[in-house]
């Protein structure tokens, strides 16, 4: 598994699970068939700047740094209002056109939001291609994005 993919997975784990030790990361990844050492996880934690915060169950757990715990909906709304040009669908594909230089940020926010209807997302300079799991989900996603404008 590449580092970028591992970091994305670690970020999801931190948001969805209570991770108290580096070994917890190693164990969860191993359960998913991904072999990784504790030393690699330690480096990942430093690179991702994960922090430990008090856990509701007592003790401490890993968390994203404060600047990464942003409200995705607010950021999406602001970016769509500022840079949106057009949106269209064809079957399970949705294409969003933006002002030049804004599509990569939009694609990143869409991927970070982890919408269940999205299979994948490809960003360029002024367009984002979103591949949905079905035509109906593409229509749902298009309506969701239009609501931000």
TrEMBL record:
- Asked if the keyword Repressor belongs to this entry, the reply reads yes
Q: Which Gene3D superfamilies match?
A: 3.30.1360.40, Winged helix-like DNA-binding domain superfamily/Winged helix DNA-binding domain (1.10.10.10)
- Pathway linked to the protein: Amino-acid biosynthesis; L-arginine biosynthesis [regulation]
Q: Which SUPFAM superfamilies match?
A: C-terminal domain of arginine repressor, Winged helix' DNA-binding domain
| A Gene Ontology biological process term | protein complex oligomerization
Q: Which residues form the Arginine repressor C-terminal domain?
A: 80-145
The UniProt record lists the keyword Cytoplasm: yes
Q: Where does the record place it? A: Cytoplasm
Chief localization: cytoplasm
Q: Which UniProt keywords apply?
A: Amino-acid biosynthesis, Arginine biosynthesis, Cytoplasm, DNA-binding, Repressor, Transcription, Transcription regulation
Instruction: Give all residue intervals belonging to the Arginine repressor DNA-binding domain.
Output: 1-69
Q: Which GO terms describe its cellular component?
A: cytoplasm
Cite a single GO MF annotation.
DNA binding
Family the UniProt entry places it in: Belongs to the ArgR family.
Q: Which HAMAP family match?
A: Arg_repressor (MF_00173)
PANTHER family (UniProt xref): ARGININE REPRESSOR
Q: What does this protein do?
A: Regulates arginine biosynthesis genes.
Which NCBIfam families does the protein's record reference? Answer: argR_whole (TIGR01529)
From the Swiss-Prot or TrEMBL record, give the protein name: Arginine repressor
Q: Report the source organism.
A: Marinilactibacillus piezotolerans
Q: What is the lineage of its organism?
A: Bacteria, Bacillati, Bacillota, Bacilli, Lactobacillales
């Amino acid at each position: 598994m590449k580092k970028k993919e591992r970091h994305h997975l670690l970020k999801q784990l931190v948001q969805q699970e209570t991770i108290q030790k580096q070994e917890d990361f190693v164990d969860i990844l191993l359960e998913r068939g991904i072999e990784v050492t504790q030393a690699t996880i330690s480096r990942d934690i430093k690179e991702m700047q994960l922090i430990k915060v008090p856990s509701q169950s007592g003790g401490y757990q890993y968390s994203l740094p404060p600047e990464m715990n942003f409200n995705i909906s607010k950021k999406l709304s602001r970016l769509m209002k500022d840079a949106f040009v057009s949106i269209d669908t064809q079957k399970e594909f949705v294409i969003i056109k933006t002002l030049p230089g804004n599509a990569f940020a939009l694609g990143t926010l869409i991927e970070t939001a982890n919408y269940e209807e999205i299979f994948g997302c490809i960003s360029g300079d002024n367009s984002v291609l979103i591949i949905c799991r079905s035509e109906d989900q593409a229509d749902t996603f298009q309506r969701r994005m239009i609501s931000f404008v």
